[in-house]
Specification:
- The complex is a heterodimer of chains A (265) and B (247).
- Chain A is built from ten helices and ten strands.
- Chain A is of the alpha/beta class and 265 residues long.
- In chain A, the strands form two sheets. In chain A, strands 6-7-8-3-9-10 form a six-stranded mixed sheet, sandwiched between helices.
- Chain B is an all-alpha fold and 247 residues long.
- Classes of the chains: A alpha/beta (265), B mainly alpha (247).
Amino acid sequence: MSAVELSPDAVGKNAPKIVARGVNVFYGSAQALKEVDLDVGEHEVTALIGPSGCGKSTFLRCLNRMNDVIEGCRVEGRIELDEDDIYDRQLDVVQLRARVGMVFQKPNPFPKSVYDNIAYGPRIHGVGQSKSEMDEIVETSLTRAGLWNEVKDRLQSPGTGLSGGQQQRLCIARAIAVNPEVILMDEPCSALDPIATARIEELIDELRQNFTIVIVTHSMQQAARVSQRTAFFHLGNLVEVGDTEQIFTNPRDERTEGYITGRFG
Amino acid sequence: MTEQRGEHIVRAFDAELQELEQTIVRMGGMAEASLEKAVDALARRNSTVAAEVVQNDREVDLLEQQISERAVQTLALRQPMAADLREVVAALRISGELERIGDYAANIAKRSMALNQLPPMRPAHSIPRMAKLVQGNIKRVLDAYVARDAALASHVWESDEEIDETYTSLFRETLTYMMEDPRNITPCTHLLFIAKNIERIGDHATNVAELVYFLVKGERLEGGRPKGDTSSYAVVEPTDDHGGDAS
């Protein structure tokens, strides 16, 4: 059984898009996650918070099997995306990552043009055969990422030439170009200034209409601002999950309280 | 419920929260003392003491300003969360309640100065008893605040009923006196307002009790509060037969 103390409102209002049960992750002999049970609601932003090394990023990377590429990493338990077991051996990991996109801490555009950064994903998935189709995907993705007006006249310039905040929005545009269902974000704003951060946060709130978002953040204020649900991890345990408002005004577990109020020993 | 006070990693934050709490306690003590002195001025017909109460109210107001500035500053600079957030929000709102208590006490003092120029009235005797009850509630709710005692807070919240009942009977009594002799109208009206002020102070003390409960538990005090103030519906008919068919 899980050692997790689920708060009474551990089950969100929205239907779960991702259901994780009894998830254990080991790096060699070290256990990074212990019996994690967590539902991620559809069209919600779920924030994962906790001190460094608590397992929140590890959990995030389980959701699109990014941990597969780490040597010695072993994942136990069950994670379902719309009731499909994502650790099923038959499952095509490339297809999974098309459904579950990811944005990283540091903006990492390909050393290609703005246009090709967006077109890359659809191309490898065989979407957007004609030039006009691809043009449309590029424009839509950049528009949804709130970047179109800033880059429409420089689509052929290198993506790496944009500002940090623009690069991060380019990465988000790249992630949504393949029309994923879920977007994972691993500290997407930690390398950005407050204005660029605000733009991304505004974007996250808009993207929620069409996507399910899971975000790892070290900024509690950011978790409070962007998410509807917050999960607090500590030492590999999921300590508490609940509505963001409840977690930040009246957490039920004293470890959560200690962490978010800055009293952690 | 978690009871974690102090020991923030950033220690200056603890100092700020402590200062906020101490200012609330000081302010509460002053508001309570104002009520006591105002009623004492009434009972002993001492206008000098009454004038002091009016004078002191400015200090209570100043403390409220100070608390609200500090609280806003803490919100802006520390972005408190969870219990810390409730701490700051509660301080902000409790100080507002205490400020109102101070205002009512000052008003009682002013009216007692007016009463001192008139012949003594009998209903004045039940005022100190009513004030004692209210004062007891202020004191206990402040104790509950300092001790973060939700049970004591909800006890205060429930015990407001007796105050309301005393007020209702005082209301009827003063109306009767006014009907007996129109010359009683001036002193009785002042007494009525004084009683009403005390009753309102009692209500503010229960508001503080609700805030203390919220501060400790993070939840509202649920359920209907027992109420004994039925004076809003009270009708006292003249006792003589001349005005028999009251419309």
